[in-house]
Every structure is written in structure tokens, then in C-alpha cells.
Amino acid sequence: MYLVVMIMTANKNLCTMVNARMAQHLLFFLGCIFLIFVVQTEGFYVPITYVQSAVAKGGVCLDGSPPAYHMDKGFGAGIDNWLIQIEGGGWCNNVTTCLARRDTRLGSSKKMIKQVAFSGILHNKPKFNPDFYNWNRIKVRYCDGSSFTGDVEAVNPSTNLHFRGQRVFRAIMDDLMAKGMSKAKMAILSGCSAGGLTSILHCDSFKGLLSPTAKVKCLADAGYFINAKDVSGVQHIEQVYSEVVATHNSAKNLPQSCTSRLKPGLCFFPQNVVGTTKTDLFLVNAAYDSWQIKNILAPGVADHHGTWHNCKTDITKCSAEQLKVMQGYRMEFLNALNRLGGSPTSRGYFVNSCYAHCQTETQETWMRSDSPLLSGKTIAKAVGDWFYDRTSFQKIDCPYPCDKTCHNRVFDGQVHHDSIDF
């Protein structure tokens, strides 16, 4: 920061001696310097790795390209520990919505950027990530549209859509096992949003890949999607999830402890799976999850007149009646959370009352001086204490707007956020 201040001070007088255009160039340059500083302190870039061996196994993205991940190797005492973070990005529930994703980064590794920033739970500095900074940290890219559950053998030549999420997951795990994960002493399967759902659905099978002596747990960030009616009284999300499972032929890859009791589509909801999940699990979720409010509670199909648009853009713009509805949704979420089961040592949760979605991958919400707190703990501290069995953590925040540590999301009012990510 001292370098930035010196440059800004030195250039203050200079800007008065040059024309306006030159001053603009200088300000742009200084802005770049500041952004570089922020990246260097709160994140760093990691190159992409393509899993070419997955193609022969049929483990490919929607467009048939090989899957990919980004890996920063562990060091020191963490060299035998592995943190797998699954990328989020919604789902596709039919041929039309899957075609819309096929030629994007959510359906093709050809469209993925070559480097991604690692911060938060993926950071490599103890100051920003004290419990996992020296682990092998991997961010798995998401390109199948089914939370890595699909497996359809046939490929329609007219669409060239490959529904192979389950094979993608296994091929990536095989690749990581060959690179040392088979000798893991400690491991975490984690993820954000659809990736958080992945970490729940694959939790037990992930643990089964590793040595029985390894300490293995799972972490789901903003992945606890609930089966609730929208503002028009329709069970919209239940229908969509059923279509996702049918399109990707996911039923056979969902936890049998659930599919033996319920329809496969219902087993895409964490509340119907976590009760029989054997592996230790921690949930990080906002009770007013911004994605769920926008797409489950008040999707565009249920809000024909757009009365929820401003509210979904900025929670401070919600009317008293809308806040009342959202408080009801919070109670539904907490009731669904009751199905978590297990003991405080095996089940942990950090449920704050923020209008947010995904809080472990960004430094500001994972661990910083101004990060969200529950019982005086950051998310990083709560997760670390729980994983290492230092102390259990099961905390639920008071209702909105009591929590002043929240980083509430504010969306661009000019962009329509009413459409569901399917």
C-alpha cells in the first residue's frame, strides 16, 4: 500500500502540469497499480490444467471437450493434505437450456479463462487462510450442468450434447489420485452454489476414494437449496430439479439412501440427503441466500409484473410486505436445516442473515478484518475449528437486518436478474 501512496503523491503535482488526456492516462495507470496490489495481497492467479485422459473415459464437458481444474500444490506440513473446491454455475434442465450453456465456460473448457484467482479458502498465505494455506488446493471447473451427476451414453449428433457429469467427476478424481491424493492424510471436498450441492451429493463417495485412516470432511458453501414454493404458490424449483435429473440421467448417481425412499428429483435437494450422509459435513449459507431469493422464492415466471425486481437487486429496497415474505422463507430454510442430523462434532453450520451467495471463495467474506461474524468468529475460523476438532460450531444468526457485519450483495439495477439459471 505504501508504494501506491508514494506513486499517487508523486503524480499529484505531475497531473497539474499535463493536459487532461495525460491525467486520465495517469489515473488509469494508478488504478491498474492498485488492482495489482489488491490481487497480490488478497489473491493470486493459478493456471488451468486440462484432463485429457478423461476423454477416453467419456468424462467430457457438454460440448465434448476435456474437463479442467486449477491446482496450487501444497507445501511444508500441508503437502499431504487436499482441498477440492468445486465451481458453481447453476444447472441446465433440458436440451434448450443445455445448448445455451454448451458454448460457454459452463459447457466447454475451450471457453474457460486460462488463469483464475485463488483467494479465501484457496489462498496460500496464513494471514488470509490460516488452516488450509499450505494444502494442495484445487478448483474444479464446472462444465456439465448437473452438479456432476449425469451419465447419458448416447450423444445426439444434431446437438452434440454430452451429459457426462459423473464421469467428469470420477476422471478428475482419478487424475488427482495419481498426483498424490491417494496418499492424503487430510482432505476436504468443498464447493460453492451448484458446486456446494456437488460436495453434498458426492460427499460419501469422495471419502470412499481415500484411505480409511485419512481425515475427510465436506464443506458446502451456498449449496443448501431448499424445496419451497415461489411467491405464486408453485413448486417451481421441484419441477426444475426433476427435469435436471431426467435430462442428465442422474438418478443412478444420486445417494441410494435417498432414491430408495423418494423420487429421484427430490434427491437433488440437500434436505433429503444430508440426514443419511455418513461423512462429516459443514454448511456455510446465508439465510437470505440471494440466488435462492431470486430464483426459488421470486423467479421471473412467478413475478409477471416485476414487483420483486428492485427488491432482488438490493435488499434495502424491499417493501415491508416483501421482507415479511423473505422472513417466512428464512423460517422454511431453518426448518429444512433441521434435517441435517448428526452430532455437533460431525455436523457444523454457519448460517448468517446476509443477502449473499457464496462466502468462502472471496477474501472479504472468508477472513478479513471486516468479514461477517457469528459469535465473534469469521467463517474461516469457524470452519477451521470444526475441521480440526478444536471446537464444534453450529450458529444461526438473528433475523435481518440485525447483523451489521454482513456483506450484502447489490446487483446492477440495469441487468434483469429475474431469469433462473437454467
UniProtKB/TrEMBL annotation:
<dbReference type="GO" id="GO:0009505">
    <property type="term" value="C:plant-type cell wall"/>
</dbReference>
<comment type="similarity">
    <text>Belongs to the pectinacetylesterase family.</text>
</comment>
<dbReference type="InterPro" id="IPR004963">
    <property type="entry name" value="PAE/NOTUM"/>
</dbReference>
<dbReference type="Pfam" id="PF03283">
    <property type="entry name" value="PAE"/>
</dbReference>
<protein>
    <recommendedName>
        <fullName>Pectin acetylesterase</fullName>
        <ecNumber>3.1.1.-</ecNumber>
    </recommendedName>
</protein>
<keyword id="KW-0964">Secreted</keyword>
<comment type="function">
    <text>Hydrolyzes acetyl esters in homogalacturonan regions of pectin. In type I primary cell wall, galacturonic acid residues of pectin can be acetylated at the O-2 and O-3 positions. Decreasing the degree of acetylation of pectin gels in vitro alters their physical properties.</text>
</comment>
<keyword id="KW-0378">Hydrolase</keyword>
<dbReference type="GO" id="GO:0052793">
    <property type="term" value="F:pectin acetylesterase activity"/>
</dbReference>
<keyword id="KW-0134">Cell wall</keyword>
<dbReference type="GO" id="GO:0071555">
    <property type="term" value="P:cell wall organization"/>
</dbReference>
<keyword id="KW-0961">Cell wall biogenesis/degradation</keyword>
